[in-house]
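The aim of this short unit is practical: by the end, you should be able to scan a pair of folded records and say something sensible about each. We start with the first protein, listed as its amino acid sequence and then its structure tokens.
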Amino acid sequence: MTNATSTATTKKSAKATDNAVTLALDIGGSGLKAMLVDFEGKPVSDRERVPTPESPKPTLVLDELDKLAAALPDFDRVSVGFPGVIKRGVTYTAANLDPEWAEYPLQAVLEKRWKKPVRVANDAAVQGYGAIRGLGVELVLTLGTGMGSALFTNGRLCPGLELGHHPWKKATYEDYLGRRGLDKDGKKKWNKYLQEAIEQTAKTFNWDHLYVGGGNTKKIDFDLPKNSTIVSNEAGLLGGVALWKDEVL
């Protein structure tokens, strides 16, 4: 898995005992969320949330993450879902945050800051780990500030997919289905475009099951295909423990 890290420190911690508690973080364009989960991915705390800073530069976002961590009991390790391309704990893109995130060593910074082992993956991938069944081809789409995506085959992530930035119609999927598209075109057209996009992804990936998550799922007003599931926002946190299972690395 190329968008979760595997340093010597984190490999050792990945074999932690079954009572290891993971601080799961979900960094989004509008909100930062945190929850503690046990080794089975079940919540052991309430979900905490703070708004994403209006100027979402790394230093300001990290200050808010400090507050989230301080609001929760102690934890053993950290999983982070981040909205962009991640390689070896480094963030390479963050279209809905700030240009300063380009080539930012998020994992190393958090490990030094909190003195805990950390793993980082794309946020849609983490949400997928919290929702998928591990059978066949499964596609995850997240509808929020942007449009996230993750593709799994028999439970294994195909890393690096950024479907939101793929050309579609006269722009990209994200331009139509992200927050900007919703605000520009209105709910009726947004739903029409979403139906078309789902049909296109079915033809492109031949997925066996589709999972749709993110805050804007509540605006969907049509029936999804029968082999589709709307997943809760908590899946983006509950899936964090999967980053510490040897079989996904």
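Turning to the second protein, read its sequence before its tokens, just as you did above.
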Amino acid sequence: MNNDTNVTWHEHRVSRDMREAKNNHKGCVIWFTGLSSSGKSTIANTLDHMLHQSNIQTVVLDGDNVRHGFNADPGMLQDTHGKEFAKRFGLGFSAIDREENIRRIGALAEIFVTTQHV
């Protein structure tokens, strides 16, 4: 896929089928939604632990943890990267910032679960 910024999707040499055969299970995304402090992280981490004990490969993308790095708010970025950078790339909690937070996490989850660009 090419666009005006010349960004190209690169097919992976290790296919989804190859990963699933190696891991002996199919890949998927389970996304917990709900109000703040409703137990999403607790449930996700409990499930992660249970699946790990069954030798199932997992990754937890906890919303708060993602907000500490990948989707940090402007205040968290300002000290290390400056005000302009923080304003441009930091995500607060406005409706549009929450939408971008979800879009970014979804894109990252897609990379984890599949090697085929949809």
